[in-house]
Specification:
Elements (H helix, E strand, L loop, with lengths): L11 H18 L8 H8 L4 H11 L9 H13 L2 H12 L9 E7 L2 E7 L10 E2 L1 H14 L6 H15 L7 E2 H8 L3 H6 L25 H6 L1 H24 L5 H22 L3 H7 L13 H34 L4 H6 L12 H18 L2 H4 L4 H8 L2 H11 L3 H24 L3 E9 L3 E7 L11 E5 L9 E4 L9 E7 L3 H11 L7 E4 L4 H5 L3 E4 L1 H9 L1 E8 L11 E7 L4 H17 E3 L6 E3 L11 E8 L9 H11 L9 E7 L11 H14 L11 E3 L4 H11 L4 E6 L2 H14 L2 E4 L3
Parallel strand pairs: 13-16, 13-19, 16-17, 17-18, 19-20
Antiparallel strand pairs: 1-2, 3-4, 5-6, 5-12, 6-9, 7-8, 7-12, 10-11, 14-15
InterPro entries: EF-hand-dom_pair (IPR011992), EF_Hand_1_Ca_BS (IPR018247), EF_hand_dom (IPR002048), FAD-bd_8 (IPR013112), FAD-bd_FR_type (IPR017927), Fe3_Rdtase_TM_dom (IPR013130), Fe_red_NAD-bd_6 (IPR013121), FNR_nucleotide-bd (IPR039261)
GO biological process, one term: defense response
GO molecular function, one term: superoxide-generating NAD(P)H oxidase activity
Length: 755
C-alpha cells in the first residue's frame, strides 16, 4: 500500500496518482451537491447491514453536516488506508464505543434468530464519547458483526462470545473496556493491526501495480513439470496426425492437390473417430489407473481430450468435405456434362464408399457431427435441455455406421476400440438388467442437498473417491448423471451419494422426495438436538412414505476411477474441497478412519492406546492436509458428523505428529483485518480456546474467515518436508486455476476432478 499523501516516503507522482484515483471514485458516487449523503455512502460501501455504514458515516462526517465532502473523505481514507496502527486503533475504538458520537434518538435494532433486540441510544450528537465500551455496547456490535459475516448463532451463544471477549479485554475488572485495554488486547495480533482496514472500501484504494513476469506462465519450468504428461501426450497426438496426413497426401498427390488434401484429412479422420471411442472406455481407463501406465498417460484428462478430439474431427471433416467439393467442381468444369450437384447427390461408381455413396454419406456425416457439437455445448447441457444433448449424442452410433460405409479402411481402425466399446456397453446393460437397486434412506438437507443411501449390489467393489453414473426412472427415464460415492468401500451394505441441487435433474430429485402433492406422506426429524436441527435428517414414515421409497428404484453404472486414486500412493497429500466438492474426499477420509480403527492398539495393563503406522504397499501416506472451503455456515452441515469422528480418532495424537490436519474456511465471513469483524473473530478465537470447540461447526478445528492465503498455506506445507506433495482439488474451475498457479510456484503436482 502507498504511504499517506504528502509523506516523505511517497513521491509527488504517487501522491498525485492517489488523489486522482480517489477523486475519480468520489465523482462516481457523489450527488449533484458534490457531497455524499448516508444512502449514497451505504451503496458505495456495499455493506450488508446499515449499522456499520452509519457508524462509519458518523465518524467520517467531521463537521456533523450530515454529508461527507471530498476533503473529509480524503482525510478519513488517509487514516484507514495509510494511517499507522494507533490511528486505526482509535478509529476502531470509536466504532465500538456505540454511545459515543451518535445521532439523537437513534435506535440500534439487532435481529438474531428472529428475535429483535432494540436498544435506544438517546444521546445528542454533541454528547462526548464515554471513553469506554460496556458489555451492552459490545454485545450490540458483535451481533451486527455476526450479521455482516452471515453467521447465525443462538442468542445465548452471542452472550458467551460477548463474555469471552469482555473478560479478556477488561484487564482491571472495572466493568468497561478502555482504549488502553483494547490496545493491549490487540497487541497479541500484530498482523491484524498492521493490515486493519475496511475491506468494503477497497474501491477507494489505488489499483495495485500489475505483476509482470519476464516470461509467460506457459514457458516456465514449473508449468512444464506439472503438465509434462499432458504436454507429451498432446505433442505425440499432434505428431501422429501430421504423420498420417503427410503419408496419405503424398500417396495421392499425383491425382491433384485437392484430392491429396482430402485423402490426408480422411486418414486423420479414420484415426480420430476411432480414438473418440478409446477416450470413452471408462472401465478400461479405470483399470489402467492401477497400472504403471497411469504415471505416463494423462488419464485424468480423458474427458477434456474427448472434447478436444471432437473439435479436431469436426475441423478435419469440414476441410475434407471442402477439398472434395473443390475437386468435384474441377471435374465438373473439365467434364462439362455433369453439374456439381450430380457429383454430390448421386451415387457414382469409383467415387468411393459402398456403392459409390461416399458423397452422400459424407454430407450426412458432416450434418450429424455439426449437430453433436452444437448440442453438446455447456449452454445446452446446463440450461435444462439435457435430453437434447443426450439424444443428439446417441447419433454416434449412426456416425460410426456411416463411417464404415463411407471409408473403406475405417473398420481397420475401429475394430479393436469398437469391440471394447460394445463390451463395456454390454457390461453396463447387464448391470441394469439385473434389476433396480432400492433407495433405503433419503436425507434432505436445508442447503438443497439430497443425501441418498442406496442398497449396495453384491460384488460391487470400488476405491475411495470413485464415481458412478446414476439413473432414477422416476425422475427422468433416459438421463444418467455422474456422482461421486461419498461412503467408504469398507461400508459393505450401502452406497452414499450427496447430490447438490444445481440443475434441472437435481432440483427435480430434491422436490420428488419432498412430495408436497402427497398430503399423507409424513416427514419427521430423527433428532431434535441443535446440531440435528441444522442437518434435518428425514425418516420416511407412514404407508405412503414407505411405498414411495419401495417404488423408487435406481440404476447405477460403474464404478469409475478418478485422480483421487493417487492419494493413497502419495507421501504428503493436500485435499482441497470447495462446497460439495468434498464428496470424493469424504469417502477417502472415511477409509482412513476405518484403517485407523483396524490398526489401533491398546496396552492391556495401562489401557494406553495408539495407532500403528498406516503405510503399507497400498498406502504410502505420511501426512494429509484437508482443506474445506464453504460459502456460508449452513453448507458445513454435509459432513460435520464425519469430521467430528475423524477428530476423535486424532485426539490422542500430538499436534505435531498428527497424520491428518483439517482446515475450514468460510468465505462469507469477514477476515480479522476488517474493522467490521475483528471483534467477532477475536471473540470466536477466545471462546474456541476456552471450550476446545468451534462455535460455527462444533469441531475442534477453528473455522477461518475469508478465503485461504494460498501462499501461506502451501508455504507451511512445504516447510513440513513430509515427502513429495501432491494437491488434489474438487470444486469450481475458477478456483482450480488459482490453485494450479500456486502449485506450479511451489513445485507441487496438481490433480483436479473431471467429469
Amino acid at each position: 500500500l502507498l504511504p499517506p499523501p504528502g509523506s516523505c516516503t511517497m513521491s509527488a507522482a504517487q501522491d498525485a496518482e492517489w488523489l486522482r484515483c480517489v477523486t475519480k471514485q468520489f465523482g462516481s458516487i457523489v450527488g449533484e451537491d458534490k457531497e455524499i449523503d448516508l444512502e449514497e455512502f451505504k451503496t458505495a460501501l456495499q455493506v450488508k447491514e446499515s449499522f456499520f455504514a452509519e457508524r462509519f458515516f458518523t465518524l467520517f462526517d467531521a463537521d456533523g453536516s450530515g454529508t461527507i465532502s471530498l476533503e473529509e473523505l480524503l482525510k478519513a481514507l488517509s487514516l484507514l488506508v495509510h494511517g499507522n496502527e494507533m490511528d486505526k486503533l482509535r478509529f476502531l475504538f470509536q466504532v465500538y464505543d456505540v454511545d459515543g458520537k451518535m445521532m439523537k434518538n437513534r435506535f440500534v435494532c439487532l435481529f438474531l434468530n428472529k428475535v429483535a433486540i432494540c436498544k435506544a441510544a438517546r444521546l445528542s450528537s454533541e454528547h462526548p464519547s464515554s471513553g469506554s465500551i460496556d458489555p451492552d455496547e459490545l454485545r450490540v456490535v458483535l451481533g451486527w458483526c455476526l450479521r455482516e459475516s452471515a453467521i447465525v448463532l443462538p442468542e445465548e451463544r452471542l452472550g458467551d462470545l460477548t463474555l469471552a471477549l469482555f473478560e479478556a479485554a477488561d484487564k482491571d475488572h472495572s466493568g468497561s473496556i478502555t482504549f488502553e485495554e483494547l490496545r493491549e488486547e490487540l497487541e497479541g495480533f500484530p498482523e491484524v493491526l498492521e493490515n486493519l482496514t475496511i475491506s468494503a472500501a477497497s474501491w477507494l484504494k489505488p489499483p495495485p501495480p500489475a505483476e509482470r513476469s519476464c516470461r509467460p506462465r506457459y514457458l516456465t519450468r514449473a508449468y512444464w513439470h506439472n503438465h509434462r504428461s499432458k504436454l507429451a501426450f498432446l505433442g505425440g497426438y499432434a505428431g501422429l496426425n501430421l504423420l498420417l496426413f503427410t503419408l496419405a497426401a503424398l500417396r495421392h498427390v499425383g491425382l491433384g492437390r485437392w484430392l491429396a488434401v482430402a485423402r490426408g484429412c480422411g486418414q486423420c479422420l479414420n484415426f480420430n473417430c476411432a480414438f473418440l471411442a478409446v477416450l470413452m472406455l471408462r472401465r478400461c481407463l479405470t483399470w489402467l489407473r492401477a497400472t504403471p501406465i497411469a504415471k505416463v498417460l494423462p488419464l485424468d484428462q480423458h474427458v477434456v481430450f474427448h472434447q478436444l478430439v471432437g473439435y479436431v474431427v469436426l475441423t478435419l471433416a469440414a476441410v475434407h468435405t471442402g477439398a472434395h467439393i473443390a475437386n468435384f467442381s474441377r471435374l465438373a468444369r473439365q467434364d462439362g456434362r455433369h453439374a456439381l450437384a450430380e457429383y454430390l447427390l448421386s451415387a457414382r461408381p469409383g467415387v468411393g464408399g459402398l456403392g459409390g455413396t461416399a458423397s452422400q454419406t459424407g454430407l450426412v456425416l458432416q450434418g450429424l457431427l455439426a449437430a453433436m457439437l452444437a448440442f453438446s455445448s455447456p449452454c445446452v447441457r446446463r440450461s435444462g435441455h439435457f435430453e437434447v444433448f443426450y439424444w443428439t449424442h446417441l447419433s454416434y452410433i449412426s456416425v460410426w455406421t456411416l463411417l464404415i460405409l463411407h471409408g473403406p479402411h475405417f473398420w481397420k481402425w475401429f475394430a479393436v476400440p469398437g469391440c471394447l466399446f460394445v463390451l463395456e456397453k454390454v457390461v453396463g446393460l447387464v448391470w441394469r438388467r439385473a434389476g433396480g437397486l432400492r433407495i433405503m434412506e433419503v436425507n434432505l438437507l436445508p442447503s438443497k442437498v439430497t443425501h441418498l443411501v442406496i442398497e449396495r449390489p453384491q460384488f460391487f467393489h470400488y476405491k475411495p473417491g470413485d464415481y458412478i453414473y446414476l439413473n432414477i426412472p422416476a425422475i427422468a427415464t433416459y438421463e444418467w448423471h455422474p456422482f461421486t460415492i461419498s461412503s467408504a468401500p469398507e461400508q459393505q451394505e450401502t452406497l452414499w451419494l450427496h447430490i447438490r441441487s444445481l440443475g434441472q435433474w437435481t432440483n427435480k430429485l430434491y422436490e420428488y422426495f419432498q412430495q408436497p402433492e402427497l398430503p399423507s406422506l409424513e416427514l419427521k426429524p430423527l433428532s431434535r438436538s441443535l446440531k440435528e436441527k441444522r442437518c434435518q435428517r428425514w425418516e420416511q414414515v407412514g404407508v405412503d412414505g414407505a411405498q414411495l421409497l419401495a417404488n423408487t428404484e435406481c440404476y447405477i453404472d460403474g464404478p469409475y476411477g478418478t485422480p483421487t486414486r493417487r492419494i493413497f500412493t502419495s507421501e504428503h497429500a493436500v485435499l482441497i474441497g470447495a462446497g460439495i466438492g468434498i464428496t470424493p474426499f469424504a469417502s477417502i477420509l472415511q477409509s482412513i478412519m476405518y484403517r485407523y480403527r483396524r490398526r489401533k492398539q491398546s496396552c492391556p495393563s495401562c489401557h494406553y492406546s495408539w495407532c500403528e503406522d498406516l503405510r503399507d504397499e497400498e498406502m504410502t501416506l505420511r501426512k494429509v492436509d484437508f482443506i474445506w472451503i464453504n460459502r456460508d455456515q449452513k453448507h458445513f452441515e454435509w459432513f460435520v458428523s464425519l469430521l467430528t469422528k475423524l477428530e476423535m480418532e486424532q485426539a490422542e495424537q500430538e499436534p505435531g505428529g498428527r497424520f491428518l490436519e483439517m482446515h475450514m474456511y468460510m468465505t462469507s465471513a469477514l477476515s480479522k483485518n476488517d474493522m467490521k469483524a475483528i471483534g467477532l473473530q477475536m471473540a470466536l478465537d477466545l471462546l474456541a480456546a476456552k471450550e476446545q470447540r468451534d462455535s460455527i461447526t462444533g469441531l475442534r478445528t477453528r473455522t477461518q474467515p475469508g478465503r485461504p492465503n494460498w501462499s501461506k498455506v502451501f508455504g507451511k506445507v512445504a516447510e513440513e518436508k513430509r515427502g513429495k506433495v501432491q494437491v488434489f482439488f474438487c470444486g469450481s474451475p475458477a478456483l482450480a486455476k488459482v490453485i494450479r498457479v500456486h502449485c506450479e510456484r511451489f513445485g507441487f503436482r496438481f490433480f483436479k476432478e473431471n467429469f
